[in-house]
Specification:
21% strand; Arc Repressor Mutant, subunit A; 2 domains; D-Maltodextrin-Binding Protein, domain 2; seven-stranded mixed beta sheet; alpha/beta; 41% helix; two-stranded antiparallel sheet
């Protein structure tokens, strides 16, 4: 059979073909019958036949040999259908991937953390999101809050979790949870016999804090609380991380303060006690750019809002158990 004239080319230089035409041709090739293919499609046989003729004219080759009992696939048609099946499968996969990304079911989520994730709200949030969206790649960084906020403004971080409720230009800020403040005591300290500690009891203690966050914020808080009692605290700051600061307490250099989530970590030779009769808490917030349209982040934010409501109710219903001589892992995990 002579080759058919080729239709005008597309911008890519290749014949412009219709995906519908290819799909229908594949169906005819599967059934080796225009009538059966038309029946599956719910279309007229003549309409399907005309579409296939048009496709063959566009390609410049015959895909089928037609005879009274049906059709046979030509050699050129066999090669075409083999590649077309693969191409359509890849296209279908690409469409599904794009749709999933648009729905936030996959993609990337960049999170900046500040508080410990040994327990508490943030651990629960990340774990729940991971379980619900296993195909989203999580990128988590732990640096100073001010650096996180700079990355947010540059569009290099989706969300940062920070202490307090800072005012950040061109960013959204939402308080999500609070954590109770705990005092860290060296094992054997006289105050370890108490289940809870009042601020008056630590007025003469030497406080060990960090130069980096949250050291400055905690220092301001300690000074304010003790100033209300007419005392000026003794404070020494070290350029160390969270873990090392706790070990300095164990070595007897002083006492320190931390939040609930940190208490779930296992540190030797220290004990944790709530301070202020459970009324002293630290707020934590999520910060993100108002221009962020990452679908995965929007899913994450929606989950954070929902969990924050449940977490707040749960926190209000919890009664603090005795803490003497043990950690509070079961309470806050």
């Amino acid at each position: 059979m002579p080759e058919r004239p080729v239709s005008p080319l597309s911008d890519s230089g290749l014949p412009a073909v219709s995906l519908i035409s290819i799909a229908q041709a594949l169906l005819v090739a599967e059934h080796l019958s225009f009538r059966q293919a038309a029946g599956v499609l719910g279309a007229g046989q003549s309409a399907v036949s005309r579409r296939i003729r048009s496709l063959e004219d566009t390609l410049g080759v015959s895909l089928f040999e037609r005879y009274h009992g049906g059709v046979r696939i030509t050699a050129a048609g066999a090669r075409f259908f083999d590649r077309a099946r693969s191409a359509l499968a890849q296209l279908d996969h690409a469409v599904k991937i794009a749709g999933a990304a648009g729905r936030g079911e996959n993609g990337h989520l960049r999170i900046g953390i500040f508080s410990s994730i040994a327990a508490g709200f943030l651990r629960h949030l990340i774990r729940t999101f991971r379980e619900q969206h296993p195909d989203v790649v999580l990128q988590i960084s732990e640096i100073a809050s001010r650096e996180h906020l700079a990355l947010i403004r540059k569009g290099r971080l989706d969300v940062a979790f920070v202490m307090g409720t800072p005012a950040v230009p061109n960013c959204e800020v939402l308080q999500l949870w609070t954590e109770q403040i705990f005092v860290i005591l060296p094992q054997g300290h006289a105050l370890c016999t108490s289940k809870e500690i009042e601020w008056e009891a630590v007025r003469d203690e030497h406080f060990i804090l960090r130069h980096s966050d949250p050291g400055p914020a905690i220092q301001d808080y300690v000074i304010k609380r003790l100033a209300d009692l007419g005392h000026r605290p003794s404070v020494q700051k070290f350029d160390v991380g969270r873990e090392t600061s706790v070990h300095l307490v164990a070595l007897g250099l002083g006492v320190s303060l931390t939040s609930e989530a940190t208490v779930a970590n296992c540190f030797p030779e220290v004990e944790f006690r709530p301070i202020g009769s459970g009324t002293d808490t630290i707020p934590f917030s999520g910060v993100w750019s108002s221009k962020n349209d990452n679908p995965a982040f929007r899913r994450f934010l929606s989950l954070a809002r929902a969990l924050a409501k449940k977490w707040s109710k749960r926190s209000n219903d919890v009664t603090m158990p005795s803490l003497a001589g043990r950690t509070v892992r079961d309470l806050i995990d």
